[in-house]
Adenylate kinase isoenzyme 1 (Sinocyclocheilus grahami), 194 residues
Amino acid sequence: MADKIKDAKIVFVVGGPGSGKGTQCEKIVAKYGYTHLSSGDLLRAEVASGSERGKQLQAIMQKGELVPLDTVLDMIKDAMIAKADVSKGYLIDGYPREVKQGEEFEKKIGAPALLLYVDAKAETMVQRLMKRGETSGRADDNEETIKKRLDLYYKATEPVIAYYEKRGIVRKINSELPVDEVFAIVVKAIDELK
Ligand SMILES: Nc1ncnc2c1ncn2[C@@H]1O[C@H](COP(=O)(O)OP(=O)(O)O)[C@@H](O)[C@H]1O
Ligand SMILES: Nc1ncnc2c1ncn2[C@H]1C[C@H](O)[C@@H](COP(=O)(O)OP(=O)(O)O)O1
Ligand SMILES: [Mg+2]
């Protein structure tokens, strides 16, 4: 299976909760036709299925914690394989959340060509998530869980960026700007890949 995926570009999309990862991924899909795989969306689909595993995942996500690495990596891998025949590129949104996740992904699937680091200030992320929480219906878009997610982001996920910076594949995107201006920076980073 790694063979089939080999020719497609893999882009990690990393940033804090509410930084704008999903928003930018949607625009990348529209312009480049990449396959967008959000680890959070895959997990929420499992929760929505009502399965026993979904119930366990829901409890973890509600607390703002990370679900087990194997669970999320298997989901991403299956979703990548399912699209392997048609995919020009993959946006892996919300993964890796910790350095270990990056290492395991590379062992089992392949190396990323680019890491888009979607960067916003903590206060901006909190504001956006509180606003999103008015309509998202997400169990984790509440003040208490947002705080835990932010703490975990700085502790576990920021080291991921440093790890890939050493390889020169990180492009930092200022996500404080309006959506279209953020996207203009994203486009430059992706066009460099070709
Ligand atoms: N550049 C931006 N300016 C203002 N609001 C934004 C921007 N990017 C995203 N948002 C809003 O912030 C919220 C979180 O964005 P989302 O893409 O869901 O982030 P993530 O996937 O990183 O959690 C959404 O309600 C979105 O509409
Ligand atoms: N790669 C990953 N490893 C472990 N847990 C993950 C994960 N991706 C998502 N989750 C779980 C824990 C997160 O708090 C929750 C929501 O993730 P998300 O939808 O990516 O959030 P956001 O887009 O707001 O950053 O799902
Ligand atoms: Mg998202």
Notes: The first helix runs from residue 2 to 5. Residues 17-18, 21-22, 38-40, 43, 61, 64, 66-67, 72, 94-95, 97, 101, 140, 149 surround 2'-deoxyadenosine-5'-diphosphate (ligand 2) (CB under 6 Å). The domain at 1-187 is CATH 3.40.50.300 (Rossmann fold). The beta strands are 9-15, 35-38, 89-93, 114-119, 170-174.
